[in-house]
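Researcher: Can you fold this with 3-methyl-2-oxobutanoic acid in place?
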Amino acid sequence: MKKWNTSKIRAAKGSYKLACLTAYDYAFARLADSAGAHLILVGDSLGMTTLGYSTTVPVTMDDMLHHTAAVVRGTREALVIADMPFLSYQVSIEEALRNAGRFLQEAGADGVKIEGGAIRRGCVEALTNNGIPVLGHIGLLPQSIHNLGGYKVQGKTQETANALLEDARGLAAAGAFAIVLECVPPDIAALVTAAVPVPVIGIGSGSACDGQVLVMNDLLGLSESPPAKFVKQYACLAPQIKAAFASFIADVQAGEFPASEHFYAPAQPKSNS
Ligand code: KIV
């Protein structure tokens, strides 16, 4: 049995802070898991971090299933949640159930994440009532980027802050085991966190949330562009990786790699006698 399941994640509310990371493949999932991450999210941010798209909108079910299965193979203790991609849960509850079920049956995920608040109540109820744990996601919804007109802080007016509170309450009542709250002012995030009985996991939403999630590539400094304001870079790996690649290329060209210590023993010619 894994150390982290949805009951333990729920029970963290008010007792300890949850630390969640995204991962998109086996190697990084192993590292995040062995470092002690409580929840690993196979985010559809993989559209940008791994597949080179400019938004999450082009990501497909096949992309998500492929990467989720790899993350599951690399994870022993953390809860693995798969992001449901754009249009895999919005068209009908039947389609949402079928697609969500594939993440559990085919990829081995422990649950799914869907974007949207009160409007997703019916979907969250149908999934949870049928044995599929759901992580909600409110605030900035990257799959709605074409409606939002940019990656902007959400909930800045009284009206939108009230809507966020209703969204969070609606998702919790529908059975979501936790809720991601993205890019919301810290005072509003504190109100949302206090308003629901399930953990609120913040990203760009201040420190009052019950936990935090960061995109792995941002935390590790794997991109060459400057990070968003809310990101803390715990490493700056892009220049180091680039320097390692450049050293390899220079060594090969100079005939310095491989050196004798990288050779296998020469084959012993068989004598004919
Ligand atoms: O896709 C993703 O990585 C996410 C996180 C930013 C929460 O949804």
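Model: Folded with 3-methyl-2-oxobutanoic acid in place. The beta strands are 18-22, 39-42, 79-83, 111-113, 134-139, 178-182, 200-203, 211-214.
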